[in-house]
């Protein structure tokens, strides 16, 4: 089977709106910056609506994005994860044995050597700290959006995220402490637990309820039809999130674009590098595409709420570390969209999708 033949069904499954998603995101970025500058009071009020450093408007939008993926979760198939352990193994190795250390290495390389003449040493150390916090926090919520866009196996994706969350509870603080060279890391447990509840537990429960109702009404075809109807709402939620995130940071983006560009460089290299490591490892191990693509995207995406909260608590709201974590948020969405597009175009490199529930 040729690559073009293999990718035709996936491409055909994308509506015109989704195929032009990169354009809509670009327009959302421009709109976010424009609105952030023209109505700063509104965005200040929205930014202040948070609990335990979790922004509630963004949480609602992410919930809307995650929900359609959760409808596809089949708990009856969770026990079958052992039949395809390679995807989970790749995710864990990349997230916990590679990603934090490559991010720290890239931060040191760029800010202590390559960019040394452009920024003060104290600022460089602060930016490195922010990058380390991002590298040690694998994604919890947005990966469901990316997995949905590549038609990933919903059940397998949930298991991958769940295992990562459990490891993060015990491994995040020691890894950050090791890489920062300090031992008094205070993990904001309220942020971590509230984020998992908002982005995973609640939408999962709602998705299971809807799935059960749809299965009774018409079986698996009814479930898939519901998910297809919900897909545009999920993408609209993504665009609204982009508007908010760029609106929150509009003043900072225009005030110091050079520093933001410098921080983005190692983040871009890290994102594309980590994706390629996981993606080609999955291809070499002959992992199915609907498992391989999400496992690579999980390692690439970051749990930015946790990283931002820890940066603020350790170094302060106006610190370079906090700025670096925010730049991570700004870089992530455009980067992930390019990787989703790449994955969809290379679907034919992998074994056919089967899905654990089939």
Instruction: State the end-to-end distance.
Output: 22 Å
Strand content: under 5%
Radius of gyration: 20 Å
Instruction: Label the structural class.
Output: mainly alpha
Q: Which ranges are low-confidence, i.e. pLDDT below 50, for 5 or more consecutive residues?
A: 1-13
Number of helical segments with 4 or more residues: 15
> Biggest sheet, strands in spatial order?
1-2
Mean pLDDT: 81
List the helices and strands in order. HHHHEEHHHHHHHHHHH
Give the arrangement of secondary structure elements.
Elements: H1 3-12, H2 16-19, H3 21-38, H4 40-48, E1 50-51, E2 54-55, H5 56-71, H6 85-114, H7 121-135, H8 142-149, H9 154-180, H10 189-248, H11 250-255, H12 257-284, H13 289-300, H14 304-315, H15 320-345
Antiparallel strand pairs: 1-2
Written description of the protein model:
- This protein has 358 residues and is mainly alpha-helical.
- It has 15 helices and 2 strands.
- Strand 1 (50-51) and strand 2 form a beta hairpin.
- The longest helix is centred in the middle third of the chain and has 60 residues, at 189-248.
- It is globular and about 60 Å long.
- The two termini are 22 Å apart.
